[in-house]
What we know:
Blueprint: E1 3-7, E2 13-15, E3 21-23, H1 28-40, E4 44-49, H2 64-67, H3 70-82, H4 84-88, E5 91-92, H5 93-97, E6 105-108, H6 113-117, H7 122-132, E7 137-141, E8 164-165, H8 170-176, H9 186-193, E9 196-197, E10 207-210, E11 213-216, H10 222-237
Parallel strand pairs: 1-4, 1-6, 4-5, 6-7, 7-11, 8-9
Antiparallel strand pairs: 2-3, 10-11
Organism: Mycolicibacterium vulneris
InterPro entries: Class_I_gatase-like, DJ-1/PfpI, Prot/Nucl_acid_deglycase
Protein name: Type 1 glutamine amidotransferase domain-containing protein
Amino acid sequence: MARILIVLSGSDHWTLSDGTRHPTGFWAEEFVEPHRTFRNAEVDVDIATPGGVRPTVDQVSLAPDRAGGEERAAELRSYLKSLEHELAAPMSVEHAAENLGNYDAVFIPGGHGPMEDLPDCRPLGRILAGLFDTGRVVAAVCHGPAGLLAARREDGTWLFAGRRLTALTNEEERQGGLADRAKWLLETRLREEGADFDQGQPWSSHVVVDGRLVTGQNPASSKQAAERTLAVLMAAQSPQS
């Protein structure tokens, strides 16, 4: 049976350009939809964070006006509650990096938390390189691709330079109200590192697949990104591949 590692940010804030700590964490939909999609496909899922700290859900992502209504917000809360035990004591990313043979894919949800603690997370970088360089699948959604920045080769070059991918766009960050206060913007940084950045309409589902790299643009892309991850994983594991 396939096993996927979901790496969540362990940060409860995002430090802005003026030093302000903006409360955040992981975005509920971007974790819930992939986790449920993987479990429904009978794929084993492990959850990890840097240092094995308990991840913080961004409370904004559970507000009815951002989640898609009262019923949807309640459903997200209920699903998170059903995983209380797993979220209370996640695996450490450091431990996962020492056990790469256990995983067929890694998936990184967003929220602004990943902007704080994942770009320079060396154990995550080892996971990404270790999986991708051995024919396995790497996936991320929204701000999750900030974690891809951690994947450096020994000469300092970025593992995903030249790859076609997507993430939350500068325009979406601007519409979200934090672009002017950010130390850096994800789209800009990915482009500077050499990504072939591909974007769809703001807040519409948009998923990009480049070989075994799967990326989604925003929260609306969460379920489709998970489905495409499964499709790529199954293709990679087929006898013909």
